[in-house]
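Weekly puzzle thread! Below is a chain. First person to post its structure in token form gets bragging rights.
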Amino acid sequence: MSNIQLQCLLGIQCNDFVMIAADQTNSHSIMVMKDDEDKIYKISDKLVMGVIGDSGDTSQFAEYIAKNIQLYKMRNSYELGPSAAANFTRQNLAEYLRSRTPYFVNILMGGYDKVNGPELYFMDYLASSVKVPFAAHGYGGFLSLSIMDRHHKKDLTEEEAYNILKLCVQEVHRRLFVSLPNFQVTLVNKDGVKALPVINSKSLQ
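Winning reply:
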């Protein structure tokens, strides 16, 4: 759990889409190893998962969840919706938490369901899970929640939601003592998963 709070995840759910942003910094101890790491994983055609934590835990857990959800689709000929996928993920977090090898990962899972529309789920390393209209993880989240609370509306357009995330990143850049220069942004709607432009200092000018 050395640097789990130094990373940042942001998520917003509106009437027609879910948008998730994640910093791209990979650090070890006092060193930055890279600043272009992907922390948002595509789980299925209309489901993504933002994962922060130690590098090994994040990639291994995300791959484990993704492969099991794909296996479920192959066996049953239909995909798990966001709600079912979130419950499956939470169950695995809870089981590993009680084992000798827990996964120290914080998660935002967003997806689009034909019946319920877009959904966003907040999960942490203690296996709590809740459906939310907006959410954040990490110290950057402490600075961002008030901004999202102030500006979030259910009927936001994709551009307006993206601009709210830019405001959050701008605040993280201004006030957080850790350098998180790049944030990747992913959108999920009825058409599937779409990568949006990276938010960085250049795009905030």
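Puzzle host: Confirmed. Bonus trivia for everyone else. The two ends are 34 Å apart (CA to CA).
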